[in-house]
Amino acid sequence: KACTPNYSPGRGWPCFNTDPMLKRDCFEDILEERRNSSDLKYALRCYAPVLYKGVTPCKANMLKNIVLQSDQLHYVINQVSQESGEAPDIIQEEASVILEEMAHRLQISTVRCFAFALSKAFKTLFQHVCVNEEGIQRLQQAIQEHPVVLLPSHRSYMDFLLMSYILYTYDLALPVIAAGMDFMGMKFVGEMLRMSGAFFIRRSFGGDKLYWAVFSEYVKTMLRNGFAPIEFFLEGTRSRTCKSLTPKLGLLNIVIEPFFKGEVFDVNLVPVSISYERILEESLYARELLGVPKPKESTSGLLKARRILSEDYGSIHVYFGQPVSVRSLAQGKVNRSTYNLFPRHIPRKPMEETQSFVNDTAYRIVRLQEDNMVLKPWVLMASLLLQNLEGLELSVLTEQTVWLRGLALSYAAFLDWPDQAPTAKVVSSSLALHRGLACVSGDRVSLVVGEPLGPVTPEEALFNRAVSVLSCASYRNQVLHVFLRPAMLAVAMHTAASSKKNEVYNCFSFLWDMFSNDFILCPGDTVQDFEEACYLLVKTGAVQMPQQDIVMTDIGQPTLSFFNGLLEPFLQGYQVVCRYLCEEASEGLTEKQYIPAVRSFAVKLILAGNLRCYEVLSSDMQKNALAALLRGKLPTQKALLARL
Amino acid sequence: MASNNNSSDRQRIAQQRLSRIAAHLHKHEDGNSGIIAKECKIDATGSTEENKGTVPRKRQEIMKWNGWGYSDSKFLFNKKGQAEFTGKRYRLSGMTLPSLQDWFENTFGASVKHKSPATPVLNASVVPPPRLNEAFVENLKATGIPFSNEAEDRVFRAHGHCLHEIFALREGKKFERVPDMVVWPNCHNDVVKIVELACKHNVCLIPYGGGTSVTSALECPPEETRCIVSLDTSQMNRILWLDENNLVAHVEAGIIGQDLERLLNESGYCTGHEPDSMEFSSLGGWVATRASGMKKNVYGNIEDLVIHIKAVTPRGVIEKSCQGPRTSTGPDIHHFILGSEGTLGVVTEVTMKIRPIPEYQKYGSVVFPKFEAGVACLREVAKQRCAPASIRLMDNKQFHFGHALKPQVSSIFTHFVEGLKKFYITKLKGFDPHQLVVATLLFEGDRERVLQHEKQVYDIAATFGGLAAGEDNGQRGYLLTFVIAYLRDLGMDYCVVAESFETSVPWDRVLDLCQNVKERIIRECKERGVQFQPLTSCRVTQTYDSGACIYFYFAFNYRGLADPVHTYEQVEHAAREEILANGGSLSHHHGVGKLRKEWMKDSISNVGVGMLKSVKEYVDPENIFGNRNLL
C-alpha cells in the first residue's frame, strides 16, 4: 500500500476575490494530482484521520447497541407500549428493525472503491474540482475539538459523494450522512452508499414517536461520541432552481439539543458551499418544475445516465466555511438552565426561545452557504439573457457582462472571473460550455430552444421554450442572493407612491414578506436588510438619500432598471397566481389540483399573447406564491394585485 | 519561635484541664444523672487563663495573618529545590516531598526560580483608622466584655480565605474597609448585651467564627459608614452540658471543630461532623452557612445534626421550647438561621447530636480505569445506600497531585513494593496512568460490620472495573484536603493562583458538568491571556440518593498577566455560569456570601428572595447585622 500521510495538492489556484473587505480563501484543484498519479494507489493509500479528542470511535455495531440501550429510547418504548398495549419487547424489536433499516455501515473498503471510481468519473466530467484548503485545515482543527456538523448546500446528487471524496482526499474523518429513504430503493447502490456512511431516513414520519426516537437518538449518539462528523442538507432536498431553499429544522434541532442539555461542550456547524459550473441535472430539473415527474431513483436509471459522462461540466468549487460555534451563537439567546428541571432523557418539544434560535441559526447558515457560492461569468450572462429573451448582440452582451461584473464585485460576490483572459474570450468560452442553453447565430446571442422531432403543437413549442428559460433561470438564480436586497429596494422605489424613505420602506417590507419563501430572508431582519440595500445602492452611486428621501441618481438608471428586470419574473409570477385565484379558482380547490390548474391558466395566457413570462410555469414559483398568500391574510391578495 | 512555645504551653495547660473535666464527667456518668450542666460564667476579666480553646483572642499569635493555618506550618522549596512541610502538627510535618517540585513545575509551567514573595508584616499605614462610635464604646466598656481596635486584630477579621482576599494581604494592598473594632463575648449573655448596645447606638455587627469563609462573607461592605464591630465568637467555646440519655451535647457556638471533637472524644463521643476546614471553622459558622462534613453519610450534614439553636437577633433571642427530635410546627425556624450567613443575628448556643466514638476505622481506596467508571460506581453505591462514612472520587489530575505529596520513601523495600503496585495496575491490568482515577474510602463502625461493609463496597467497585488499591492511598487522599490550603500559599509564592469551588448536581449530569466546567475554564483562561495551561481538577466528594457534590480545584500560573486576581475572578465567574447552565447548584456547602449574590434571584426565584427579604426586614429592620451577604 502506498502510504502518503498528507495529501500534497497541485499548483496553487489563483485567488479571484477582489474585495479587500472580504477575506476569502484560495482554492486548490484536487483533480490535478489525480491526473498525474495512480488512482489505484490513491484509493489504497493509508487513511488515518484525526479524531474527536483523540478517542477511537466505536464500531458501527456498538453504536446501534448504545442507541438501543439508551434511556431515551427506553422511555419512548415504554410510552408507546402503554399507549398501544403491545409488550415492550415487541416495541423494542420494532425499534431494532427501524435502526437496522436506518443505520449506516461505514466501511473503509467501500470508501476506497468509491475513491477509485469517483476519481475516474470526476476526471471525465469536470475540468477542476477546487477546494479551499484553509477551510479544510479549520475543519481538521474543529473535528478534534468539538462534534462537527457539516452542512453543505444541495444542488445535485453528486453533493454527498463529492463531500466524502474530498474528506477522504484530505485524510479527514468521513462523515455520516442523512439521506432520503428513496435512495435505498436503488438495490446495489443503496447498500454501497450505506457502506460509505449514508444512513437513511424516511421522508415523513410526523406522528411516529418510535421512529423519531430511534432516529434522533441515533444521530445524537453519533454526535456525543464524536463518532464522525454528521452531514445533512439543511435545505432538505436538492434545490431544482439553484436558489437556496428555506431550511428544514428537524435535524438541526436534533444536533443542537445535546449542547443545550449540557451533553457536549459545544457543537460546530460548518457551512459548505458547493458550486457547479454546470449542473448534471440541469434540464431534468427544468422538466420536473414544469410538471414532468422526476424519474424514480433506480440503478438502471443511473446507468442510462452514463451518457452524461461524455459531456463537459466545467468545474466544481467546494468552499468549507468558518465553523460556527453553537455555544457562541446561543450566548445570551438561550438560557440553558431552563433544561435543568426536566429529565434529559424524556423527549420534549423545544421551548419557544430554543425554536426561534434554531430557526435563526438555520437561516444564518444558509446565508453563509450562499455567501461562499462561487459564481461563474455565465451566471451574469444568463441574468442578462433572461432580460432579453429575444436575444441580444454579442458585443452588447459582452459589454453588459463586464458592467455587471463590476456591480457584482462591488456587492462582494464571490466571482470566479479569469483575470488574465480577455473579456471576449471569457464570454465565448462560457457560451461554448453552455452551448445547450445559448447559441450565437451571426452576431446575436439567444436562448436555444430544443428542436423537437416532427410536427409540434403550440403547447409543445411553449413547453420547449420554457425548458430553456427555466434552465437559464437556474443560473441567474445563483446570483440572486448577491443582488436580492438592492433589487427589492429598486422595485420598492419603483412601486412606492413617493420617494419618502418611509413609503419606500413600507413597499420594501411588503416585498420582503411576500418573497420570504422564494429567497433566504432571515426572520426579523427586514430593517437590517433594508439598510443593507440602501447602503449598497448608495455605495455604487445608484441612489442618493437626502434627508428622509431615497432618490435615483443621474447614473443610477442602468442599475435600477437591471434590478427591476431581475425581479420582474417573480413579480409577474405572483401576479398570475393571484389572478388565477381571484378569477378562476373554485371553492374547495385542493393542493393537488392547484399546480396543474394554475399551470394551464398560465399556458392559456401565454398562448393568447397576454403574458410573456415563462417562469410562472415553474411549480416552485407557484408553490411559493401560494405559501406567501396563505401566510398573509386574505386582503393581501387584493393588496398584491393592487400594488403590482 | 517563642510564640510557638507559648502556644504549646497553653495547649498543655488546656490538656490538663480537659482531663480534669473528663474525670468530672465520668463521675456523673456513674451517678445516674446523665446530664451535666455548666453555668454560663461571665468572664469579666477575659483572662486567657480561662480560655481552654485552641484559638486565642490574638489569633495572629498562632496563625498566619496573610495565609492559611498555623504560622509554624507551611510548605516551602528548600535550597536543594525539594519541597518540605515545616512544623510538627501534621503527618506530613517535617518531611520532604521529593516529587512535588517536578509536579509543580510540569503542571503549571512554573519554576522555583520565579518567586513572588508575600509582604512579611502588616503595614499599619494601609489600614484605615477606626471609625469608633464613642457612646457604644463607653457602654461596652461598662459591660466588661473585652474588645480591641488594634490594626492587626481588625485586619485579621476583615477577610476570609478567598483568593482575592489572601492575594491582597500578601501584596500589602491598601484596605478599603476593615472592622473598626473587635469584641470577644464570653457567653450568650455577653452577645445579648452587645447586640442590644449595637441596636441602641446603630452600630454594624459582623459575626466572626473561624474566619474560613470562601465567599467574601466576611468582607466589610465598603459603603458601610457606621462603625463596624466584628463579633468574634472564639471565646465562646465550651461544651455546656452533655446528655448521654438522648445523645446530645449543648455547646457554645464559637467552638471550633477540632476542639469540639477533642473534648467530646474525651468523654467517648464525637459529632462526626468533619468539614475539611474543621481545624479552624466554628460550630456557629457551620450553622450559618449550612456546612457539610465529609462523614455525612453516617452522621448527616449540619442541618441533620442540630437539635436546637439559640441565636441573638436585634428583635431578641430566637429558640425553640423543646428538643423534640422532629416537630410539625409550621416551617422550621431553624431553617431561617441555617444558611443565614450572619445577616439575621449571632448563633450563640447549639444542641447537637453526638455519637459514641466508632470502635473501628478503616481507610481504603479503589482504582478505576476511567472517571466514568468511578462515577458509575459511586452512583451504584448511593443507589444501594451502602456508602461508607466517606467516599470520594478523585479525577486523574488529583490522583497525580496526591502522588506528588508522597513523602520520601525511606526503605528500598517500600520503594520496591510501590513499583510493583504501579506495574500491576498499569501493565498487568492495562490501566492508562493518564486516565485512571481513585476513589478514597473511610469506613467506621464495629470491626465486623466495617469488614462486611468494606467487602460489599469493593464488590460493587469490582463490577465497574475497580481494583482495591490499599489503605495508604485512601488516607493520602484525605490528607490532601487538609493541606490543600497550605499548598495554595506555596503556589502563591511562585506566581500560581489557585482556588476551589463546589456544587451539587443530579447523578445523570455529573459527568457532563465536570467535563464542561473544566473545558470552560481552559477556554476562558486562553481567551483571557493566561499563558500556561491551567490546572482543572475535580472530585466527587459526597453522594446522595439523587445526586452528588462536586468539588473543583482550579489553578494557573499568572506570569505575564497584569491583574491575575481579576483574570481569576472572571474565569471563576464563567465557571459558575457553566455550572448553573449544566444543572448544578449555586453552592453545596460553601454558601453564597457576597461572591455569588448575583445569582440568588435565578436560583430561588423572585418570590424566594422576597420571602428572605421579609424575614430580614422583620428580624433586623435597622440592618445591624450589615454584612450584606446573601441578598
> How many helical stretches of chain B?
19
Strand order of the largest sheet of chain B: 19-16-18-17-21-22-20
- Number-wise, the strands of chain A total 14
Please state the structural category of chain A.
alpha/beta
First and last CA, distance of chain B: 44 Å
Oligomer: heterodimer
Largest interface: A-B, 12 and 13 residues
Shape of chain B: globular
| Unreliable runs of chain B | 1-5, 17-40, 42-49
Q: What share of residues are in beta strands of chain B?
A: 15-25%
Number of helices of chain A: 25
Rg over CA atoms of chain A: 26 Å
What would you call the structural class of chain B? alpha+beta
The value of Rg of chain B in angstroms is 24 Å
Describe this protein's structure:
The complex is a heterodimer of chains A (644) and B (631). Chain A is α/β, with parallel strands linked by helices. In chain A, helix 12 crosses helix 19 (458-495), helix 19 (458-495) packs across helix 22 and helix 22 (557-583) packs across helix 25. The radius of gyration of chain A is 26 Å and the shape is globular. Mean pLDDT of chain A is 87; it is low at 1-21. Helices cover 53% and strands 9% of the residues of chain A. Chain A has 25 helices and 14 strands. In chain A, the strands form three sheets. In chain A, strands 1, 2, 3, 4, 5, 6, 7, 8 and 9 form a nine-stranded mixed sheet that branches. By secondary structure, chain B is α+β, with helices and mostly antiparallel strands. In chain B, a hairpin with a 3-residue loop joins strand 21 and strand 22 (547-557). Chain B is globular, with a radius of gyration of 24 Å. The two termini of chain B are 44 Å apart. Residues 1-5, 17-40 and 42-49 of chain B have low confidence and may be disordered. Chain B: One of its GO terms (biological process) is ether lipid biosynthetic process. Chain B: Keywords: Acetylation, FAD, Flavoprotein, Lipid biosynthesis, Lipid metabolism, Membrane, Peroxisome, Phosphoprotein, Transferase, Transit peptide. Chain B: It is found in: Peroxisome membrane.
